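haha ok so turns out i had the wrong file open the whole time. this is the CORRECT one, sorry everyone. sequence first:
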Amino acid sequence: MVNDLKEPLMAKPIKSKAPEPCLISVIASAPILTVNTDEGETNTTETDNSTISSTENLSLDDQIDFVCQTFNLTLAAEYLERYGYSDSDVWRSLPDDELEEELREAFILFQAKQEIAQTGIFDNATKHEMCIPRCDFPDIVTPKSSRVKRYKIGKERWDSGDFPLTVGFSDYSTRMGRQDQERAFMRAADSWARVSGLSFKKGPARGSKITIGFAHYDGPWGVLGKAWFPKTGRIVFENKENWESKIPNRGGAQGSLAFYSVAMHELGHALGISHSNVKNAIMHPQYQRDVVNLQNDDIRAITALYGSAGRGNRNNGGTNNNRNNRSGRNRNRNNKGRNNRRN
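then structure:
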């Protein structure tokens, strides 16, 4: 049964500390709310369902434009604090005529990461980037520790005894067939497996290392999903989203979002990878509508955690096998040398 998260509470002020769960969301003009779940408090955005229904079939570009119509400077300030670009909430007490100047450095940092003109003001290009569907995990834990170009990995990882990672569905989307979403998710898992040597297999929801579920957060074009680092192993997607299971997603229905690419992103978090600063990477915080394959930056991140498929994997015994093979080759060379000396 699909979960329906009800009775949200007003959220507390959001600090720049990195949260453990990851939510992909659009920040609209509605107030940010907190929903109590089994895993703790989840920040979502309150939306008018009638408005969402009327915009569900818009293209992504049109939907972004729709959100931008009501995305103001105050929401931009919340965005910058929420995602780590500003480590102070002093802006909350400032009038609008002083607010933009207070946030100048934060705007420049955000603009640099998004590779747009570093004007230091809340211009249309900056607003557009802030209205793109994205992940709720902060881009910067502290402004001073930011890196301009590189993946980031978390401190947690799966151990050798955890593999193959079993994947089980506890809930299913009502917008796709069950087999379609299972097939799309396992293909997303296979994308990570091909470059790392990790292994996954489909299993029952109970007892699986990674469980997939669907819940109603705020309807279409709001929260897309969330995931937790190892070894929580939980991924939850928005049930009301207009998901498209086709791979690649080009040619999908108007207003659809590629479940496959979002699944790759969320699974990356479940494997221990944080956000990338590389614009076209699957692990970039913004929704990647035209990227349906892992990019070099994603591959470097997963192999930094688990090793590469070609050189043996740290969890599946590949590294030990390589050592055994090298030892075997050394023994063969030594035996051959001894035989030559005898002859």
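Residues 1-20, 25-52, 143-149, 317-332 have pLDDT under 50 and may be disordered.
again sry for the mixup
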